[in-house]
Amino acid sequence: MKVRVKLRFNKVTGEVEEFLVDDQDMPVLSEAEHNRKHDHIAAEIGNVIERHPRVTEVLPADRATPVHEEPSPASGETETAQDATQESRRHTR
Amino acid sequence: MCNPRRVTVTATRDIAEAWRREVSRTVELAERVVGEARLRQALSAKLGKPALRALEARLAAGADGWREVVEGYRCDVEGGYVVYRLDEQVLEIVATLDASVAAQGVAETVLEGKVKDTFHAEAERTYYTDAYAASNESRAREAAERDIQRQLEAVTRQRLEEAQQQAEAAAAVGLQAQAESAARRQLAGIAAQRQAALARQAETHLETIGLRCRQAFNQLLAQAYRDAILAYARRHGAADISCRDEEGVLEVEFFVDR
Questions:
Q1: Smallest Cβ distance to A49: which of B210, B225, B254?
Q2: Best label site of A80, B121, B205, B250, fewest CB within 10 Å?
């Protein structure tokens, strides 16, 4: 699966403003299998910057808004702060 | 005027005088005390391993504004600092406030002693038998006796002063140590109180200092993210890699087959 990866990190706020793994191929697998593989790739790439990335699907209707706005580790207040970066995947089918 | 005559008077004095002297030593000590408030964040629980490795590699290579310290790497900001603790992989933000404190210690004692000694003195005066210059033997003798009194009093005072100075010199080291010890105790108490007050005050600055620290850290984190994600891209043969790092924003984009 060919994917486009886009990372946008705001150095002022410490937020990962966008981390998108966008599939580029025409789907040949079933939707469930495609989603599973896409999630696996998104998690693998998300693991590069985040210990426990959360993968969420960005549907075309969501594209008008930022993929996620959760703060990166650098903006957390304490060790218990809930600031996991989300890894997003987007379907193009 | 005939030739002058001399009259010589000698005297011996036995003294047994007690003396008493109050002596004191004062020591002033000062030091700077620092009050700190801390905030910890475990990066190992948040950052992916590649990003964390890239972060440590950047620090080891000498990141701008960061310097190596015993516990890891430190970056100073106005009013505090941020330290990355290498062993724990923890980011610690520290707000600091410092102040100077001083304390005084005094030690006092009373020294007593007795001087027993025998002093000899001799004085000589001249006179003229023809009463030249209104002098005669009687006046010359009286003057010589007054000289002797002055000599004996001076030597007695000197002997007493010497005895007291010797006693004070012998006591000085101990007295100085007592005063210093008292000053240290006093300073420790004052410093602890001031430090606690500064720490409480620093707590209220933690949010502001934290912001400065994070801004400094975010510069480093951006480099680590870039290094880590680009390393991933290259390792997997990514194409069309683009990287933009300007105006406070890092953007990386690439295409990869997985």
A1: B225
A2: A80
Domain chopping of chain B, boundaries: 1-258
Task: Please work out, in degrees rounded to the nearest 5, the angle formed at the alpha carbon of residue B204 by the alpha carbons of B199 and B207.
Answer: 120
* Chain B residues with a Cβ under 8 Å from any Cβ in chain A: 39-51, 91, 210, 214-215, 217-219, 221-222, 225, 228-229, 232-233, 238, 248-258
Q: CA B119, CA B63: separation in Å to the nearest integer?
A: 82
Nearest Cα of chain B lies from the Cα of A61 at a distance, in angstroms, of 22
Contacts of B209 in chain A (CB under 8 A): none
A72 touching B (Cβ < 8 Å): yes
Q: Does A83 touch chain B (CB under 8 A)?
A: yes
Q: Residue A53 sits in which domain range?
A: 3-90
Class of residue B134 by CB neighbours under 10 A (exposed 0-12, middle 13-18, buried 19+):
exposed
* pLDDT tens per residue, range B9-64: 999 999 999 999 999 999 999 999 999 999 999 999 999 999 999 999 999 999 99
Contact flag A5-B252 (C-beta cutoff 8 Å): yes
Q: How far is CA A64 from CA A25, A67, B17, B192, B220, in A?
A: 22, 9, 106, 57, 30
- B222 has pLDDT over 50: yes
Residue A86 has pLDDT above 70, yes or no: no
- Angstrom distance (rounded) from CA B136 to CA B123: 16
Q: How far, in Å, CA of A90 to CA of A24, rounded? A: 10
Determine the pLDDT at residue A88: 62
Please give the mean pLDDT across all residues of chain A.
71
**Band of pLDDT at residue B83, cut at 50, 70 and 90:** very high
**Contact flag A5-B40 (C-beta cutoff 8 Å):** no
Is the Cβ pair A75, B254 closer than 8 Å?
Answer: no
Per residue in B156-194, pLDDT (tens digit) is 999 999 999 999 999 999 999 999 999 999 999 999 999
